[in-house]
Amino acid sequence: MIRSGDLKDRVIFHKPGEGTENAFGEPTPGWAMHASTRAKVLYGKGVERREAAIEGVNQPATFLVRSTTKTRAVNVKDRILFGESIWDITNTSPIGNTDIEITATRRA
Predict the structure, then answer these.
(1) Average pLDDT, stretch 26-47?
(2) Kind and range of the H or E run holding 80
(3) How far is residue 59's CA from residue 47's CA, in Å, rounded to a whole number?
(4) What pTM does this model have?
(5) Who's near 25: CB < 8 A, 6+ residues apart?
């Protein structure tokens, strides 16, 4: 179980929503806010962070959140807004009955 004091960061989950059109009339995907919650964020290991910085690639992170109706509905088609970045969800795993571990990568 995650201690309440560890849930220091605010994250926002978005689900795909109605799209719009760009200036050329091409469809663009839309996103709708699904939930906002507190999370404990664990970044990738030191080696992974250095590789991401050098290569300019995506950075992995794990978001630990409380299990609620809204957070249980989050899946790999959704995304996270955190730290002024968009994070693509790659995995969700329940941790017992109280918490959920969500793995995501930040777009480069």
Answers:
(1) 85
(2) strand 79-82
(3) 11
(4) 0.81
(5) none
